[in-house]
Design a protein that fits this description.
The chain is α/β, with parallel strands linked by helices and 448 residues long. 40% of the residues lie in helices and 16% in strands. The structure holds iron/sulfur cluster (SF4) (2 copies).
Length: 448
């Protein structure tokens, strides 16, 4: 007996197609009018609660729908399955995700930075404690992932190199796959640094460009007041030949479509249309260090609307659309028992936004992890399957309840925590479908 998934979304698409999307698989499909009519007839048969008599064509259609999880075998309960995956991911101790801030120093002075002006580098003792922590876990691990964070991590390249050598030795000894990524402002990502990072298996870097050159240079000046855009763009151009680069554009109410267009023109002039993934992020006034920009910040719903407009510009300018509504088992590291963020002094945190704020630390890397620490429990305790709105939500698999820190810290109600997808799924699915069509057409043209 088959059942229709409760995570299905259908909407009109381009050229008389219908877009079919399922939030539990992330599958996006284009259906012809004929296929969609066949689906609706089938859906009616499946909804009447009795085993339907299917034609050969309908049986074939069911196979395809099962593949995309639009339809599933009725013997299992899809919400319960997702709840199981969520809880398994929470308590998974076989995969270690380590976020390391080897320094809190930064070479830039961005107006909205939540980290304030900090300094300091990881000492040899703290680095050894980090290595000891990984070594202690290694016998039970199936994978080891490190994300280099800061401050600006490239200001501590020597520490990254020393730690990576130890991590790679441990991974080799225990036959564990090792992967690394980085969040950087990109200014120090020179050719030599890229080549060294490749040797250290850093295969993905997120770099921020806050608009076209004239805007970025104002918002993200170097500490010495000099401009940074030109050199970052040059660095991205080389790096994107060897690793996956995502360009993050932080958006507040002062940011306009014209600025996005100018930025895309500059990226296109550097040949980066198909070589980087551009994503838009909402600036949040998350600490007192950036409370001064609170009025300029978007709310979730407003941001979702402007975000879709900006993605449409990406599409119109021939850029890749890499922001996909993909299912995830947990919203972020704060809900995973074996994800650990450690700062240069060895303090541990549950959220990227807390780094450097000792009052929000859950302990130190040199001590056993304290799962009962109030700061650990505060974010870990939230469970989207215990929230009535989230439990019944048709996009639960891609949102998983929104940011636990905002929920815990600010007491923000569920409807204001909803991911952008809740508000812009329809226009975004249209953009994604059109971009996939463009890619397919280009691939066909290339072959012929
Ligand atoms: S708690 Fe919220 S801000 Fe912190 S890492 Fe998770 S999603 Fe991001
Ligand atoms: S926070 Fe909103 S969008 Fe996310 S799962 Fe809950 S109800 Fe759905």
């Amino acid at each position: 007996m088959y059942k229709l998934s409760r995570f299905n979304h259908f909407q009109s698409g381009p050229d008389a197609y219908h877009i079919a999307y399922n939030a539990s698989s992330g599958a996006v499909a284009l259906m012809t009018e004929e296929n969609y009519a066949a689906f609706r007839r089938l859906a009616e048969k499946l909804s009447n609660g009795q085993a339907p008599v299917l034609t050969d064509d309908e049986r074939q259609l069911v196979q395809q729908l099962v593949y995309g999880r639009f339809v599933y075998e009725g013997a299992r309960d899809e919400t319960r399955s997702f709840k199981f995956m969520h809880r398994r991911a929470r308590f998974d101790t076989q995969n270690l995700g380590l976020v390391i801030a080897p320094t809190m120093a930064c070479n830039m002075a961005c107006e909205y930075c939540f980290e304030g002006n900090k300094a300091g580098r990881m000492s040899h003792e703290v680095a050894q404690a980090v290595v000891g922590f990984v070594d202690g876990q290694a016998p039970l691990l199936r994978s080891l992932d490190v994300c280099w964070y800061g401050g600006e991590p490239l200001l501590a390249m020597d520490i990254i190199e020393a730690l990576t050598a130890d991590f790679m030795d441990i991974a080799k000894k225990h036959e564990i796959p090792y992967d690394a990524s980085m969040i950087s402002n990109g200014y120090l990502l020179t050719r030599d640094v890229v080549d060294r990072l490749r040797d250290m298996r850093v295969n993905q870097i997120q770099i921020t460009l806050d608009g076209p050159s004239h805007v970025h240079n104002r918002k993200r000046p170097l500490k010495n007041g000099k401009e940074s855009f030109g050199r970052i763009l040059e660095n991205i151009t080389y790096a994107s030949g060897f690793m996956s680069i995502s360009v993050r554009v932080n958006v507040d109410r002062t940011f306009t479509g014209d600025m996005v267009q100018q930025l895309l023109d500059e990226l296109a002039a550097a040949g980066l249309q198909k070589r980087v993934a551009v994503n838009f992020g909402k600036i949040e006034s998350s600490t007192t260090a950036c409370a001064n920009i609170a009025e300029q910040c978007y709310g979730n719903r407003d941001f979702a609307a402007i975000e879709a407009e900006f993605y449409r510009l990406l599409l119109e300018n021939g850029f890749l659309i890499e922001s996909l509504p993909s299912p995830t088992a947990t919203v972020c590291m704060s809900q995973q028992i074996n994800s650990v963020l450690v700062d240069h002094e060895g303090y541990l945190y549950r959220c990227f936004n807390y780094v450097g704020d000792h009052a929000k630390s859950t302990g130190k890397i040199s001590e056993p992890l304290d799962y009962h620490h109030e700061e650990f429990q505060k974010l870990f305790a939230f469970d989207p399957f215990e929230d009535a709105e989230c439990r019944g939500c048709s996009i639960l698999p891609i949102c998983m309840g929104g940011c636990p820190a905002r929920r815990a810290e600010d007491g923000v109600p569920t409807d204001q925590l909803c991911d952008s997808w809740k508000h812009n799924l329809e226009p975004m699915l249209e953009i994604i479908a059109l971009e996939r069509q463009q890619r397919m057409t280009a691939a066909v043209e290339e072959k012929s």
